[in-house]
Each structure stands twice: as C-alpha cells, then as structure tokens.
Amino acid sequence: MLGTSRTAPSAKYSAGRLLWKGLRKADWPRAWREHDLRKSYDVVIIGAGVHGLAAAYYLAANHGITNVAVLDKGYLGGGGSGRNTAIVRSNYLTPEGVAFYDRSLSLYNSMAQDLNINVMFSERGHLTLAHTDAAIRTMRWRAEVNKLQGIDSEVIGPDRIKDIVPSLDTGGNSRYPILGGLYHPPGGTIRHDTVNWGYARGADAYGVEIHQKTAVLDVLVEGGDGPGGKGPGGRAVGVRTSRGDIAAGTVLNCTAGWASIIGDMAGVRLPITTHPLQAAVTEPVKTFLPSVVVSGSLHVYVSQTDRGELVFGASVDPFATYSMRGSLDFTQELASHVLQLMPGISRMRLLRQWAGLCDMTPDYSPVMGFTPVEGFLCDVGWGTYGFKAGPVSGEQMAECIATSATPKLLAPFSLDRFAAGQLVGEKGAAAVGH
Ligand code: PYC
C-alpha cells in the first residue's frame, strides 16, 4: 500500500515531513479502502487495471460521478497493467492512432503532479531499428504521419544511432545490419505499478469503491434479441458477481484477456482473439542503454530500468490461449535475437520471465465506446498497446459515459467500424512483427 494520505491528489508534504512520516509509518492511512458491496451503483467497471481505474478516476475528477464500483476477479493491477514492459510512445501509423496515443503521453507527462505520486516517467526516447529497405519505407511513412500531427519523430541513420546508443553494433557487417531507425524522443518508460496505484488512490479519494477478488459471473441484460434476452436491442441493468448481484446504470468492460468472455455475457460479440505475450528481465548491471530500443524484424524490444535490469519483450505467442505460461522457446529466441543487436551482453543472466494476455483485433486497434446493448460499453481489444493508452482511454471513456456521446478521439475505434469496413490499421506501428 502507498504511504500517503487518501486525500492526497492535492496534498503537499515538505521533504522533512515526508521523511518523518516515512520513519513513523504508524499514521499512514490505506491508499484505497475495502467496502461491502452495495446493491446498486451508477457505473460498474469490470477490471481494476489501468484502464478501469483511470476511467473511474476521470468519471469522478472530471464529471463528478462518484457512485462507481470497480470490480476485479484478482487484485488491482494484476493483469496486463502490471505485466507489461512499461513503454510509452505516440509514434503510431494512422492519424487517428497518433492523436489518441499522443493525448495519453501528455497525460502521462503531467501524471506525477495530477495524481501527486512519483510515477518515475523517464522520457528517454524510443528508437525502432530498420534492417531492411521495406522497414525504412514504413518508418518514413510513420515519421511523416507523426510530423503532420506535431509529433517529434524522424528517420535517422546509423551514425546518429551509434551516438544515441553506443552499445549497438552499427558496423553494417552483422546478419541484420542496422540501416536506419525511427527515433521518437518523447517516448520512454514509466513505473507501471505506480500508475495503477496512483489512479486507484485518486479514485478512492473521490469515493469510488474498488472491489478486488470480486469476479463478474454474468452481465444482466433485459429486452435483447438474443438468447435469454441478451444481445442487440437489450439494455444492461447490472452484473452478477461472486459476491452477489449489483444493479448498474452503466456497465463498462475494461478487461484485457477476458474481454470477449465478458462481451459474450452481455450478448455482444467482439472480434478478438487472445494471445499470450511474454517478457523477461536480466540481472542488474551498470547503466549503458539510454533509450528504448526496438527491432521489428528481430521481434524484440529492450529498455534498462532505473535499477539496471534489462527488460525485454517480443511478439505475442502465435497461438490463441488463456494460459500465461512462459516457455523455453521464447527465451532461446529472445537471447539469439538480442545478441544479434548487442553481442556485448552475452554473459548477462536472465532472472525472470512472465506473460500477460493480449486481446488482438483484426486491425490492431481497440474497440471503444457504445455497443448494441444499451448501457454496456467497452474499452477492450488493446493487443500489445494497452498500457500506453490507459490514461487517455480512461479520460475518454469517462466523457463518453458522462455525456452519453462519443468523444472525437474515440470515434474511430467504435465496434461498428468492422461492419462498415473502416478499419484503423495499426499493425505497422507494432513494436515488433506479429
Ligand atoms: O507497442 O511499444 C509497443 C509495445 C511495447 C511492449 C508491447 N508493445
């Protein structure tokens, strides 16, 4: 639990007082409270990850809607929000994507102040390497789309890459020579757990209730055209949980990994398949990697934490499953690919690996906003982009619920785009090839 006051969003402590409080510990209140489950809420949010917590926080902070419950079958931030590699960036491929993720980056930038918590945002730059002419072409395209939206993003050559990351082999004689890269200085990393805790504490301070270990077993829908009165034409009236039924004016699905299962409970089919994404971390070493480095062709991204560990990620596993097991295949492939880029780290030891679940949509963009079931909204389908989008998604979904209208930034990501054939293709902006 965090050790600062529950009324903390605006509270300020001097360094001396903080130290004094830290040493005494005794008067630290809990950062978020436990509650009995009530019979009814204005809004029930399923999923206490960064998206669900941010939506709850902005509902309260921006719109004064505080009769809100956030439910999670596990613990707060225990899904993708605590399992990701903490990379943030806005150098996407489509104008819609760029505008959306850029808003998220700006919320991340002011988060420490807004939530009064040290989220350790490190704006260290994000460098995507190109090993082929085709990759350079896609990067030029991305850089132009980015620049048109005012995003700092450009294609750079091997010499500049060597200046930025001296440990990379830019000699040109390797099996995957570095021909250039897309450099995005505003990208970086942020402490992911703290982001979750900051939103949780902020929402709690406004009176939002967070219910951990509370599984949603069904979404209660009346009047729909499908079996059991669910589906299109119906209206969501609440949820059945492992602790009893709750009535709700609005139900928001903010899950990752289980989004299509929750969708099915309401009779809403979502175009999602679920794949594991693995990551790994090394022992800590002296700082030598100043930027986030990505290679799409080698299916790897890597950054160095403030403690000195290297954090690696790769592509999603190529099969659909809800299992989150790590595999030896992954570590072997990861090691061989990383060493193509940085042969000098061959003696470093991997300490740990883990996996999270990614809900992949056909165009690699999310599904957000209203559904054919009135009162049942979605913020799902984030694939490997979910953590980056947490703040903006929360902000925009809160506005969507509060105003009963789709905000401009959300409009491109509606569920009906698949029927209308208006896809927002973001596969080309994935950190790695999938
Ligand atoms: O798209 O930058 C990215 C990313 C990093 C980890 C997962 N996705």
**Which ligands occur here?**
pyrrole-2-carboxylate
Main beta sheet: 8 strands, mixed
In terms of quaternary structure, the protein is single chain
Number of helices: 12
Overall spatial form: globular
Radius of gyration: 22 Å
The CATH topology of the largest domain:
FAD/NAD(P)-binding domain
Order of helices and strands: HEHEHEHHEHEHEEHEEEEHEEEEHEEEHH
Helix content: 25-40%
Q: Mean pLDDT, rounded to whole units? A: 94
Distance between the termini: 37 Å
* Count of folded domains: 2
Describe, in short, the structure shown.
With 434 residues, this protein is an alpha/beta fold. It is 29% helix and 23% strand. The site of pyrrole-2-carboxylate has 9 residues, from loops.
Structure description:
This protein has 434 residues and is α/β, with parallel strands linked by helices. It has 2 domains: 33-117 and 192-271 and 363-430, FAD/NAD(P)-binding domain (3-Layer(bba) Sandwich), CATH 3.50.50; 122-188 and 274-360, D-Amino Acid Oxidase, Chain A, domain 2 (2-Layer Sandwich), CATH 3.30.9. It has 12 helices and 18 strands. Helix 2 links the parallel strand 1 and strand 2. Helix 2 crosses helix 11 and helix 4 (95-109) crosses helix 11 (390-403). The longest helix is centred in the N-terminal third of the chain and has 16 residues, at 133-148. The radius of gyration is 22 Å and the shape is globular. Mean pLDDT is 94; it is low at 1-10. The protein binds pyrrole-2-carboxylate. Residues 85, 87, 89, 301, 313, 384-385, 430-431 line the site of pyrrole-2-carboxylate (PYC).
